[in-house]
Amino acid sequence: MVPPGDGGDRPHSAPFREDRGRGIGRCHEVSVTDPTPEELAALLPSWTLEGGRLVRSFRFPDFASGLAFVVRVGALAEERHHHPDVELRWGLVKLSLWTHDAGRLTHQDVDLARAIGP
Questions:
Q1: Could you tell me which of 21, 32, 91, 109 has the fewest CB atoms within 10 Å of its CB?
Q2: Is there a contact between 102 and 81 (Cβ–Cβ < 8 Å)?
Q3: What confidence score (pLDDT) does residue 38 get?
């Protein structure tokens, strides 16, 4: 039997959530071959690299259109169990991606950015 907190009681939809901050987030281990943030950003020419994060702004004709876009992004994020920082204003949505658990950009960010739009 696996003791509570050691993995046996974790739901499959939220892997490693309890490991945050304890340095054991195995899904985000760093290897010597991990790409740099610049290499990851180069895969997405419509996105920019700001402070180690992938960032992109989207313009809309009104607030409702931007809100509908945020809802669609939210559905994509839920499917991937990876969530962007979202800024919603009238006519503007700004998304910022980086992997909080790893404290850096990962391929999860690139995957979500591609799903949102290259």
A1: 32
A2: no
A3: 76
Domain boundaries, the chain: 36-116
Q: Residue 7: what pLDDT?
A: 42
E strand residue ranges, 47-112: 48-50, 53-59, 85-89, 92-97
Q: How many residues does the chain have?
A: 118
Core vs surface per residue 69-90: b (16+ CB within 10 A) or e: bbeebeeebeeeebebeeeeee
Q: Where are the alpha helices (DSSP H) in 16-106?
A: 37-42, 63-80
pTM over 0.85: no
Residues 6 or more apart in contact with residue 28 via CB below 8 angstroms: 99, 101, 102, 106
Tokens read off for 112 = 């979500």
CA atoms of 80 and 98, how far apart (whole Å)? 13
**Topology adopted by domain 36-116:** Gyrase A; domain 2 (3.30.1360)
